[in-house]
Amino acid sequence: MPTIEDFYSEEREIAPAEEFARQALVTDRSLYEAGEDYESFWEAQAKSLVSWREGWSRVLDWQLPFAKWFVGGKLNVSYNCLDRHVEAGLGDRVAFHWEGEPGDTRTITYADLLGDVCRFANGLKSLGVSKGDRVAIYMPMIPELPVAMLACARIGAAHSVVFGGFSSEALADRINDAKSEVVITADGGWRRGKPIDLKANVDIALESTPTVKHCVVAKRTNTPVSMVEGRDVLFEEVMSGQDGVCEPEWMDSEDLLFLLYTSGTTAKPKGIMHTTGGYLTQVAFTHKYVFDLHPKNDVYWCAADIGWVTGHSYIVYGPLANAATSVMYEGTPDFPDKDRWWSIVERYKVTKLYAAPTAIRTFMKWGEQFPKSHDLSSLKLLGSVGEPINPEAWMWYYEVIGGGRCPVVDTWWQTETGGIMISPLPGVTTLKPGSATFPLPGIGAEVVDDNGATVTKGGGYLTLTHPWPAMLRGIYGDSERYKQTYWSRFEGRYFAGDGAKVDDDGFLWLLGRIDDVMNVSGHRISTTEVESALVDFPSVAEAAVVGASDDTTGQAIVAFVTLKAGEPSSGDKGEEIRTHVAQKIGAIARPKTIIFTDELPKTRSGKIMRRLLADVANGRDLGDTTTLADPAVVEEIRNRAGSGSSDEG
Ligand code: WTA
Questions:
Q1: CATH of domain 18-500
Q2: Segments of 276-332 assigned E as strands
Q3: Ligand 1 first shell, C-beta below 6 A
């Protein structure tokens, strides 16, 4: 019996276009060959992509599961992201084309950013922040956010960014776990045309965070805020009068750069620890080669929020280390209208766009007229991250957004991995829509079965076979939980918690979280494959499937389906969709019930929360809904669940 069954087969293949390959950084296998000796490979990358104050004595010290990379090396991340570019004469290069949701803009050069970072770093010192401290950051997507992060890195304080959509309770938990003494926030941020209060949330959080001595408040919405005398101070006041020069703190390669909390599905959030030299090496390497970066010509836009790891690694540290020019956007994709992203791409002539499948499927749902009303011809490459991208969504992205010209790089990685692990190299890798393809050079990834034996074809568990430079160094304050969570399931391997399969040609396909795998009559079926078959039906934009307990089959598949705008759910649509799935991947995967819904429940980072749908499908009380982006969605779905189309009619 296979660990996870393999149903979906994809025939389409897209080799690198000649025009793209001609200008690409990588066009042959030499990087992959060099990557076979992964220690010397990463050593070479660390030397060529990062500036070190002092060299290392050893590339890797590996005491499973604890790794140290570039042992004894000294560097500063903000120096690498700013000073060295200014010293090289690139001070006038734009680091960020920033655009606020209301339409206001700021152009920030590398020289501007260096000055602001130094002033704010000096300001933080004057508030008593020093090397080794942890600073909490709870901000909207405004330029002060990367300034705050880089200022922490400059003086050797670790930041802990908490996504601005989290509640005051979530913020308080994270502040307390890290024992932060300073919190940096803003009065608010703009979202869908409305100011969202942040300082008010911080005020509630700070009632239960005894370690906090100061709260720094940036002005964004000009919403009135209460300022506690002696504790609270404006961002601009912290900076004003400070020297524009601040000598970087030379950090050890293994000093903590940041904490980032992942909520997981249950239990206490984990403070994922990332350190300095290895992290910077891998994010610089992956940003350069996966996005085929030409820093002089590219306008790169990662549309994630900096509150997630994608924003840390691919808005802040990777692009800045590589002296790239980026777009940074504050708000939602549908303000003032559903073409906002495409208007941004057109106006800034974006060449590389990195986005999440959830956004792509939402654009599919809204319709082609929005991207089609803008000139997207500047685009050269598209990226995807955060969830499996269904082949049809991939094709839509490739054709409608990329005009059939731009390679799509589907990048698999995690908060824990720090940087991209599995992805095409766009000048050399043949693409299959929906596959993340192969591990990057210097990365070891393998699919294994229940016994830990390597699977060379078919489904199983995704594992990483050896340490990598940007790997998490642990869970803050809980090394036992680190071992248990990631290193205990398969001996000597890191277990990511994801299912994956290997196809006939050795391509890797991500199959979603192992916890979501369904068991129908003894067949272990991945959610991703059934969802991909559903999205393959022409009028379906997005789908989520879960197992509901069933007397006959153990579990039966219940599918929650969102149709494209203007498509009716009436008539035999449900039956047609069920038949389509059966034809596409097999009768065993035919959903028993289809429930049409306008929205799916998602986390604030855009991942579908199948656990809540499973509660609905099984008629259970809803579990924890605190990480849900829009709690009303589940109630709506619950009301519809009574009227689904199913075998029983
Ligand atoms: C999922 C985001 C399929 C996966 C960088 C992983 C993906 C989790 C992909 C980590 C992808 C991320 N294909 N699944 N390209 N990228 N995932 O920590 O389940 O927010 O374990 O990091 O997202 O999510 P996280």
A1: 3.40.50.12780
A2: 300-302, 326-329
A3: 262, 308-310, 385-388, 410-415, 436, 496-498, 510, 513, 605
